[in-house]
Write a structure and sequence with these properties.
The chain is an all-alpha fold. It has ten helices and no strands.
Length: 252
Amino acid sequence: MKSLNKTVNIITAIFLAVGFWQIGIWVTDIEEALFPPPLDVAQAIVSLFADGTIFEHIGISMFRFLSGYLSAALLAIILGLILGRMTYLWNVVDPIVQVLRPVAPIAWSPFIVLWFGIGSAPAIVIIFIAAFFPILLTTVSGVKKVDETYLKLARNLEIRQPSLMWKIIFPAAFPAIASGLHIGVGTAWIFLVSGEMVGAQSGLGYLIVDARNLLRLDLVLAGIILIGISGLLLDRMIGLLEKWIEKQWGML
């Protein structure tokens, strides 16, 4: 019943968004060439699927995203678990992280292109940077907030590393880590598009740039919608992974 209600809510939201979109065009009397109506964008989406173009772009974008995101998540969680337990070391590293964290990953693009060339590598590196810091910071925060009772119990039971980290600290810090994974998905997916606008010749970001250059704003909007839907699906996948891990640890 709950899943049915969610489906109904999603369909209702889609119809409302499309309705306001079309009404806005009618009310403002804007030229269709400047802001295509829903029907034109729907036809553009159908054409992308019909000729198979979109599958190539989505496949390449997903490869870049998963390569950057998963590597960032793995390294950030490992470092976060370690640094969260080593207070003195984290006090040294934290100022460096706080200086680098606000810098938009795309700002590093001139250096990234020089170091890694063009193609998929710059996009993967940009995605890695975008996902790394949110996951690292939430992991460190989660480790620092682990209930001291758990640690005292572990000491009484003579649980040592690495069992202490894997069986006590990681499960206790996992809600914070999961929050970081969700934030990381959003930021990484946003900068995927930016990364693919830097020297790439394929992917969803390139699709938008190419359509803009051809003055095909219907394809631009089609690409934007597909990027949004893909980002939503990725976030839902992280949610399913989170529930699976919680089930394995007996948190549900």
